[in-house]
Specification:
The chain is an alpha/beta fold. Helices cover 52% and strands 8% of the residues. It binds zinc ion (ZN).
Length: 315
């Protein structure tokens, strides 16, 4: 189960297993690396190694199941949404100094670049003197903006992806891909396995069909409805990724005689779309959708739907 979930991190998993076995685990780490490569999954996996009934992150015992369900009382998983505020840190402090429920306390803080200064200062004491059997894992894709006083108090690990391992995983699990497809996807998504999986899984459902068959026609009876307000923000991002891949392909068709497309199976629709638009108009649309993608975590989703339609429709 575990190897299926954390792809490309065999070295790191073995490293942490040996640290735990030899009782050399530090109390605070920062995991730095690109988004969506699996840093958070690795942090959850380590929390299982520390709490699993078999001490091997079996994935089926009660502790592992509780961790998978985000309800293990000793594993505290903090999301920024939108910042890591002083209130969040006060709550974490209370949890940290509570007696451990059954095993090892693990505090995982995602997007650690989003600490407010006040929160970071309040957190220093925990970093300096964590109680026994407590592990703090900070995660970031923006190590450059982590507050220096935090940086200096944690053990730093920089992650990159083990490409051969990711390739093998993709070949084994997405048998529709050939080697050229796999190299292409690794390039396109900088080797980020999470992003590649999201993309491939969205290919397998009807989302592309829904987006692509209506994207060019404002007056279609089937006119595109995203219903973004009912979606989770992750789902909205997935939908936007599909649109981005469509616009990206339209630009490639516009510029190349032998286009290498993400959505090869929708060539006809992509081609028809790009024929109606200038290069600059396509580029502008692509740019706007990328900007929207970057704001999804912080905006009211109700207003996004109409904005997106206005951007992508041919008027
Ligand atoms: Zn287990």
């Amino acid at each position: 189960m575990q190897s299926d979930q954390i792809i490309g991190f065999s070295k790191e998993i073995n490293y942490f297993k040996s640290l735990i076995a030899s009782q050399r685990l530090s109390q605070a780490y920062i995991f730095s690396g690109h988004r969506n490569i699996g840093k958070h999954k690795l942090a959850k996996f380590i929390s299982k190694l520390l709490n699993c009934d078999t001490r091997d992150a079996c994935g089926v015992c009660q502790s592992c199941s509780l961790i998978d369900a985000d309800s293990h009382p000793d594993v505290i998983d903090v999301k920024a949404e939108p910042t890591i505020s002083i209130e969040k840190i006060r709550n974490i402090k209370k949890e940290v100094y509570l007696k451990n429920y059954s095993g090892y306390k693990v505090i995982i803080i995602d997007e650690a670049e989003k600490f407010t200064v006040e929160a970071a200062n309040a957190f220093l004491k925990v970093l300096e003197e964590p109680p026994k059997e407590t592990l703090i894992i900070l995660i970031t894709s923006r190590f450059d903006v982590i507050i220096p006083t935090i940086k200096s108090r944690v053990f730093k690990l920089f992650f990159s992806v083990d490409t051969p391992e990711v390739k093998k995983y993709l070949a084994d699990n997405f048998t529709e891909l050939n080697n050229t497809d796999i190299d292409f996807l690794l390039n396109l998504f900088d080797g980020r396995i999470g992003a590649i999986k999201n993309y491939l899984e969205s290919k397998r459902n009807t989302l592309r069909e829904q987006v692509f068959s209506n994207i060019y026609d404002k007056n279609s009876k089937l006119a595109l409805n995203f219903y973004l307000s009912k979606d989770s923000r992750d789902k909205v991002k997935e939908k936007l990724s599909v649109i981005m891949s469509f616009l990206r392909d339209s630009l490639v068709v516009k510029c190349s005689n032998q286009p290498l497309l993400i959505n090869r199976d929708y060539y006809e629709i992509i081609n028809r779309y790009q024929e109606n638009l200038s290069f600059l108009s396509l580029l502008e649309r692509f740019d706007l959708i990328c900007r929207i993608y970057a704001t999804v975590d912080n905006v009211n989703l109700n207003i996004l739907e109409n904005l997106i339609k206005e951007i992508i429709w041919i008027k």
